[in-house]
């Protein structure tokens, strides 16, 4: 059994999604945001019960479409998966990026958390590189006030070049104000001029070498500056999807190929390979987010999050982070495996006692052996075995992980493991999947071992 690139990596994603419109004039709005910023609250508040749910094509990532109307326009809202970035290290991130890129939404609403705006601005900046019509909705303004955090919304809007609105998603008035802005953006009353991130000089020179060509040929389909960056990053999977979307092979264009060679030479002369280029791009995004946050967010209590930062230093440190993580995961394993033995035995005893009663009943009514074999020894016995073996560890494991997530520890585990998981085209968030597989296989037969190793950029799990 193995976690492969095709099952968990970027190949698991397809950007095709059928948008279900109630009217041909409906406009499409993408709803983006980091996890746990109240994006679903905004979505539910705007759409109510007018929703359609399903999966994104080719994956188990859930999508939700909803409908809402203003006095002037009807909209289809697409709730894309919560993500911290559009760099596509996971299926959720790629789904979010691909819909913004290739789904042709009329506008993108990026929901942010007012209590940690700086972190959320990273996604805002990346979204503005792709889409022009971006609206920033800063949710949880009441929580920010409670923590004595003040945000200059007008100043932030000037910095970003797009509309910004403060909101409390639970209040209908906030959502009405948000939709008023959506109306004005989609009908052209408000003109968005998104901030253009200025990267290091050598990156800007490389962009300048190919952007004019891309702008002339494909500027009406994709943002030429963003497209230039992605070509320079040499993300093969994304480039395949871009080629499919454009209906051409970018590198078959001799003019573009010549310009691209020039751009690559510029980067090589600055000792920038694709990985270092990505690092520099991320650094620039983070730096811009920090500058904007410092100029627009006022913390009356400068030490309001000092305890969180102190905890982060301990839990994500190279010295203490891994030992603590291993100890906690070992504790979860022990509680799950040891604690589930007793309820499993009890369930097994009860369920298989019922099997004896069923067998006696079939004998009493003189049922044929083949019917008894199918229904009792087949269907019921398998069901009883699955319930007695699987239910107890799941009933213990998931609540424990829920507690760790609510305490904010699982994101720190994902951070600690992200670099390692990237080597197999996965991401740190898949630590939960790895733990589930290990517990299931171990619990199924504790006398056998589970071996996990890295080979050719894949995590291979062997149950031996």
From TrEMBL:
The keyword Membrane applies. The chain crosses the membrane at residues 319-337, 382-404. Gene3D superfamilies: 1.10.287.1770, P-loop containing nucleotide triphosphate hydrolases. InterPro entries: FeoB_Cyto, FeoB_GTPase, G_FEOB_dom, P-loop_NTPase. Residues 26-188 form the FeoB-type G domain. Keywords: Membrane, Transmembrane, Transmembrane helix. Pfam families: FeoB_Cyto, FeoB_N. One of its GO terms (molecular function) is GTP binding. GO terms for cellular component: plasma membrane. PROSITE patterns: G_FEOB (PS51711). This is Ferrous iron transport protein B.
């Amino acid at each position: 059994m193995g976690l492969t690139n095709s099952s968990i990596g970027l190949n698991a994603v397809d950007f095709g999604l059928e948008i279900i419109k109630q009217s041909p004039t409906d406009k499409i709005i993408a709803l983006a945001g980091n996890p746990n910023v109240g994006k679903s609250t905004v979505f539910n508040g705007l759409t109510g019960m007018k929703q359609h749910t399903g999966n994104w094509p080719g994956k188990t990532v859930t999508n939700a479409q909803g409908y809402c109307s203003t006095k002037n326009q009807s909209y289809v809202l697409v709730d894309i998966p919560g993500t911290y970035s559009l760099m596509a290290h996971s299926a959720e991130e790629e789904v979010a990026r691909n819909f913004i890129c290739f789904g042709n939404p009329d506008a993108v609403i990026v929901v942010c958390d007012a209590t940690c705006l700086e972190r959320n601005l990273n996604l805002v900046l990346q979204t503005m590189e792709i889409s022009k019509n971006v609206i920033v909705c800063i949710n949880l303004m009441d929580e920010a006030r409670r923590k004595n955090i003040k945000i200059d919304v007008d100043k932030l809007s000037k910095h970003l070049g797009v509309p910004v609105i403060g909101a409390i998603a639970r209040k209908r008035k906030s959502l009405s104000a948000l939709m008023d802005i959506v109306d004005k953006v989609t009908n052209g009353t408000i003109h968005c001029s998104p901030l253009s991130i200025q990267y290091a000089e050598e990156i800007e020179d490389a962009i300048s070498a190919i952007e004019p060509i891309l702008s002339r040929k494909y500027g009406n389909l994709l943002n030429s500056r963003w497209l230039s960056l992605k070509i320079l990053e040499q993300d093969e999977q994304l480039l395949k999807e871009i080629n499919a979307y454009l209906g051409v092979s970018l590198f078959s264009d001799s003019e573009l190929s010549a310009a691209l060679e020039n751009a690559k030479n510029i980067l090589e002369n600055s000792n920038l390979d694709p990985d270092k280029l990505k690092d520099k791009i991320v650094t620039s995004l983070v730096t811009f987010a920090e500058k904007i946050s410092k100029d627009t967010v006022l913390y009356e209590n400068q030490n309001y999050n000092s305890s969180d930062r102190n905890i982060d230093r301990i839990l994500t440190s190279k010295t203490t982070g891994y030992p603590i993580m291993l100890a906690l995961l070992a504790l979860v394993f022990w509680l799950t495996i040891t604690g589930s033995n007793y309820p499993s035995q009890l369930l097994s005893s009860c369920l298989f006692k019922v099997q004896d009663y069923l067998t006696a009943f079939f004998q009493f009514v003189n049922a044929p052996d083949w019917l008894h074999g199918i229904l009792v020894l087949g269907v019921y016995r398998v069901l009883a075995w699955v319930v007695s073996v699987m239910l107890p560890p799941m009933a213990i494991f998931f609540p424990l992980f829920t507690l760790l997530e609510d305490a904010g520890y699982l994101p720190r585990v994902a951070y600690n493991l992200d670099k390692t998981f990237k080597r197999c085209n996965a991401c740190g968030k898949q630590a939960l999947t790895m733990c589930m597989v290990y517990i299931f296989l171990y619990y199924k037969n504790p006398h056998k071992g589970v071996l996990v190793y890295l080979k050719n950029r894949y995590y291979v799990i062997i149950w031996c």
